[in-house]
Amino acid sequence: MPEIRKDPVFGRWVIIASERGLRPNEFRGEAALENPYNCPFCPGHEAETPPSIYTLTGENGKDWSLRVVLNKYPALVAQGRGGSVADGMYDRMDGIGSHEVVIETPLHNRQLEDMTVSEIAAIFKTFILRVKEIKKDPAIKYVMIFKNFGRNAGASLAHPHSQIISMPMAPIRVVQEIDGAEAYRAENGDCVFCDIVRQEIEHKKRVVGENANFLAITPYASRFSFETWILPKKHESHFEMMDPGLTGDLAAMVKSAIGKLHVSMEDLSYNLVLHTMPVQDPSVDHYHWHIEIMPKLSLVAGFEWGTGFYINTVSPEDAAEMMNAGKKYKL
Hints:
The chain has 331 residues and is α+β, with helices and mostly antiparallel strands. It has a single domain, classed as HIT-like (HIT family, subunit A), CATH 3.30.428.10. The protein has helices at 117-134, 172-188, 192-203, 247-264, 302-307, 316-325, and strands at 3-6, 13-16, 52-57, 64-70, 85-87, 90-94, 98-103, 142-149, 161-167, 207-210, 214-217, 228-232, 270-275, 290-295. The strands form two sheets. A ten-stranded antiparallel sheet has the order 3-4-7-9-8-13-14-12-11-10, with helices on both faces. β5 (85-87) and β6 form a beta hairpin. It is globular.
């Protein structure tokens, strides 16, 4: 049973999930799996994962094109007691929540930038459906959607997949971001993300993609080299409330941004994280859902961990220029 423990200094919660250490890792050691027949996410290996929660079928109406399954080695599970309990001076609670895996395609080597816009749109529509279903449980306060791609980004399997973790509290980083956005609106009278969209469109220096409904930028204070954000132009605080008809434009922007990152970097690894409001909270004027893509060109080291400051060796302006020109970044 996973457990969630509270840090008494920072107030952050930490998940203790020992079984996560047992999950298979294609990238570990000399015997890295390159053979898709050994992959538990490939067709014919469905028995190696928990049963599907949600499935999309292909054009023939028989074979699956996307599957959602419970993670076999979950960070959180839908069992246990709710609420925190005292443990001496500390607080802890059962690791209640859920951990789902979205197997994005049956094709082992078909990565996100290789998929069609409609295939990527289907992934985002699936995210919307799953969040709407998960949030029916009032005990769930936050749903985190993310994708780890590549060895350096923490991926353990190469087959294209993303993950959905629901939890009984909002993570401290999300709370800090929402509080910062609320303080900005109190001081400036508008949503900080809406203002970012307006200024970046006007200045253009950091824009790496734009269509009718979405904007892709290298953010002004990028923490990581080639960090890229995708923001909806229309204000919306909750991702799951987005019009599913807009997922095509979102998919096109994600495909373009990831494609440009692959062109600009050798052996790309990245984390893609969807930031949104806690699912039980009402819509707000001060927060704006968005996607953050963080390439892993270097490791976060002692200075960053010790201070909270990040050192970025490629300015967002230079990163945008290289991505738009299709130039290769040389380490």
